[in-house]
Design brief:
The structure is a homodimer. With about 230 residues, chain A is an alpha+beta fold. Among the domains of chain A are: about 60 residues, Arc Repressor Mutant, subunit A (Orthogonal Bundle), CATH 1.10.10.10; about 80 residues, SH3 type barrels (Roll), CATH 2.30.30. Chain A contains 8 helices and 8 strands. In chain A, the strands form 2 sheets. The first copy, chain A, has a 6-stranded antiparallel β-sheet with strand order 3-8-4-5-6-7. In chain A, strands 1-2 form a two-stranded antiparallel ribbon. The radius of gyration of chain A is 20 Å and the shape is globular. At the A-B interface, helix 5 and helix 6 of A face helix 5 and helix 6 of B. The first copy, chain A, binds a DNA duplex (30 and 30 nucleotides) through helix 3.
DNA sequence: AAACATATTTAGGCATATCTAAATTAAATA
DNA sequence: TATTTAATTTAGATATGCCTAAATATGTTT
């Protein structure tokens, strides 16, 4: 029997999302092993799926020579990312989840098949441009603000400037929990006072009053922009 | 490798829900074919699944002698039903979906695995007792108001009494759309003026002003209670 | 009680998505 | 350039959930 409705499985969607994210991180040569790493699966399984996605013209795939999304594949990936980030926003803003609690649930909700649902959530949230981690939310046509345009790493930021947290690079629960506890969340104001030459750790002032220290390791995972630099 | 986390698949959950609903309709002897009908699948597939659910002690199953949910199975079914009805309520009340548009989406959302999510939606909606179709929403412990306790079919209701619509029996899109268009929705006030002896069609007054006729076929799918009879 | 009709189960297959282990290819090194 | 190493692909299995067709059980007629 032929399949009447053309639809991607959850797994296919997750592979496309993973490929998109690896590409976004800068790799323009995306390998089977890269994907296996991101998907927590084995290279052999990835090869199987790549053949399938290629047959559906969602990726360009040449054996042994890596992978790239087609226009169509990119569209599917961005749609899932849009849905994921809107759901994260909904969970945090409307249902009062903490920003470190939303990922796994959004990972499920993103696959619910209903354009209308995503549109309505978007409208309900008043068309947010960024999710709770500071990542940009693609619009319904897949247009996305190029990731953190005007942002730099906190570890590279100029001293004594008024900065605002725009996002984080590490999305792990442990990192997010640490940030949440310290009050370093998107929107917070921050100023770099000094850097220890020895270990490159930073002295900061948060929201104009709280003094704190963070390691270079942490500062490298925080994105900031000049205060007022992003609406 | 042994499965570390004990979890039911979407399909298993749907079978349990189907069995629960057939039982609720009055059948106390539930057959393989009953389930195949409800699940839109074949008897052979049902047998496969019954063996599986039985092994997991979610149903009591004796070959050729029908099926009943165990306490545990009932709990799982009621949990899914709770989630489904809360999501329907959310879609209608918060996202302004029509009551005839919510079923398919809720059918997907009900399977999202997060107790916290369901609890938060419940709280956000202010702990509703009934869904948009008038069906009772089980609480977090699986306690459910016995379906339409004080309700009777509109076709059986007394004349010239002030009644309120409490629910519908037919949940098909076409029926719901018809009801929506006529204004016969849970909460509406209604009074039976007369019944045609010939075809048992009813003359009604809706919300104290709109006069209308409905066939007996329709009236048999509408539940009503004495106005003020249910909070 | 035997024969029949109907419902149910079994047997054998298919598709998806996964895995391990073996074979193959590409790229780096000697 | 030949060899080695590392990545990738293929081959062959497994589990889920579904199917069709054949076998079997139940219960109802005759």
């Amino acid at each position: 029997m032929t399949k009447l409705i053309l639809m991607n499985t959850f797994t296919e969607e997750n592979y496309l999302k993973a490929i998109y994210k690896i590409a976004e991180e800068g790799d323009d040569f995306i390998t089977t092993n890269d994907i296996a790493g991101k998907m927590n699966t084995k290279a052999a399984s990835v090869t199987d799926m790549l053949r399938k996605l290629s047959a559906k013209k969602l990726i360009k795939y040449k054996k042994y020579y890596g992978v790239a999304l087609t226009e169509n594949g990119k569209k599917v990936a961005l749609n899932i990312i849009r849905s994921h980030r809107l759901w994260e926003m909904f969970l945090v803003k409307t249902l009062k989840f903490k920003w470190d609690e939303v990922h796994d649930v959004a990972e499920q909700l993103e696959h619910v098949r209903s354009e209308k649902l995503v549109k309505h959530i978007d409208k309900f949230l008043n068309f947010p441009k960024f999710d709770p981690h500071g990542d940009p939310i693609p619009d319904a046509n897949g247009k996305i603000i190029s990731s953190h345009e005007k942002s730099v790493l906190l570890s590279e930021a100029k001293h004594d400037k008024n900065l605002v947290i725009t996002g984080v690079k590490d999305h792990s629960v442990s990192f997010l929990q640490l940030m949440e506890k310290s009050g370093i969340v998107p929107g917070s104001k921050i100023k770099v006072k000094a850097v220890q030459p020895y270990d490159k750790s930073l002295s900061l002032v948060l929201n104009g009053r709280k003094k704190m220290f963070v390691s270079n390791q942490i500062a490298k995972n925080i994105l900031v922009a000049n205060a007022g630099g992003r609406k």
